[in-house]
Amino acid sequence: MTSFMASQVAGRLIAEYEEVESGKRNDRPELAAAARSGRAAPRRAAQTARAASYANTVLPYIEAAQRAGASSIRLVAEALTARGIRPPSGGEVWHATQVRRILQSREASDGTPQAGR
Question: What three-state secondary structure class fits 87?
Fold first, then answer.
């Protein structure tokens, strides 16, 4: 690529970035359109329901890991990974943040204190 072409590409990228930052352009127009039309609320509710269902499925494994001696959320995450339970992201490895969020959602829904605080 010639330096002239590279500078043109860089100039376009900078212009696009400035449009996004200034609010003149939305990188996800389908989401903006859904929000304007009111379709975002039902989708958000469905996503929240799926997350709650997944958390309820995983909570017994988290509690079992805690009973087995996992004294921190990092250790719980390692136990879930070792057991082969897939994280909510669909990846292979659990992270402490994912465990913390599930425990926080349980605490918010039923007042159960979060372990590891």
Answer: coil
Q: What does the alpha-carbon distance between residue 37 and residue 19 come to, in Å, rounded to a whole number?
A: 23
- Measured distance CA(23)–CA(49) in Å, rounded: 31
- pTM as predicted: 0.58
CA-wise closest residue to 62 among 46, 78, 51, 49: 78
List, for residues 21-60, the tens digit of each pLDDT value.
666 555 566 666 666 666 667 777 888 888 888 889 999 9
| Residues 29, 82: Cα–Cα separation, whole Å | 40
Type of residue numbered 12: R
Residue position matching structure tokens 């805690």: 66
The rounded distance, in Å, linking the Cα atoms of 23 and 20 is: 5
Q: Which residue from 69, 82, 72 is spatially nearest to 103, judged by alpha carbons?
A: 72
